[in-house]
Design goal:
It is built from 7 helices and 8 strands. It is of the alpha/beta class. The chain has a single domain, classed as Rossmann fold (3-Layer(aba) Sandwich), CATH 3.40.50.1820. Strands 1-2-4-3-5-6-7-8 form an 8-stranded mixed beta sheet, sandwiched between helices. Pfam families: DLH.
């Protein structure tokens, strides 16, 4: 598999990201959206795992190179990142990925975690024609009513019972989506992240959720 650090036009400037090609060199496109920690080794590993499943995976860097493992600093980085700029960067990532010769699909899938899970749903709403599969992990959008009305692609959500995100709100949102499935795990926040510092990684839940997500992306991001 081949990896590239890439730069692409976005929001009138340049954005950066991490692009992973599958061993075959071509495949359907998937965008990976970071947690509030930044473009960490965990997110880079997610792109490699998706490439191993046959996808061309792009992880945009929403923090411009900054990463942290300190919760207070992560909160500051997230707060200082304008949400509209991040949304435009992600829209630019969709255009960039679909323009790659290696990408065989006419649409993309999007998968994201925590902060990135909320952006998954926002991007699916902002680009309803290009995003055919959205997979949020333990993330919630800032404007659920608007998001629910604009998403056209399929959505598969992964949420935890021991988390700060109210499951009632999650169930209400998913109940308003036209093509959605919701999975809830007896686990804590960031249960998929095997390098998280809050001690909530759950190998069994992570394995099940990952298998579901990969199958869902294959189903809804056609070649």
């Amino acid at each position: 598999m081949s990896v590239q650090n890439v730069t692409f036009p976005s929001n009138g400037g340049q954005a950066h990201g991490y692009l992973q090609l599958p061993e075959a060199g071509t495949g359907p496109g998937v965008i990976v959206i970071q947690e509030w920690w930044g473009l960490t080794d965990h997110i880079a590993d997610i792109t490699r795992r998706l490439a191993a499943e046959g996808f061309v995976a792009l992880a945009p860097d929403l923090y411009g190179g900054a990463t942290t493992h300190d919760a207070a600093e992560a909160q500051q980085l997230m707060t200082e990142m304008p949400a509209d700029r991040a949304a435009k960067d992600l829209a630019g990532a969709v255009d960039f990925l679909l323009a790659q010769e290696a990408v065989t699909s006419s649409t993309v899938g999007v998968i994201g975690f925590c902060m990135g899970g909320g952006f998954v749903l926002q991007l699916a709403a902002d680009r309803p024609e290009q995003v055919s599969a959205a997979v949020p992990f333990y993330g919630f959008p800032q404007n659920p009513d608007e998001v629910a009305s604009r998403i056209r692609g399929a959505v598969q959500g992964h949420y935890a019972t021991k988390d700060r995100i109210p499951l009632d709100a999650v169930r209400d949102l998913f109940g308003r989506l036209k093509n959605a499935e919701l999975h809830v795990y007896e686990a804590g926040h960031a249960f998929l992240n095997d390098e998280n510092l809050i001690g909530t990684h759950d190998p069994e839940a992570a394995k099940l959720a990952w298998s579901r997500a990969v199958a869902f992306l294959h189903e809804h991001v056609g070649s």
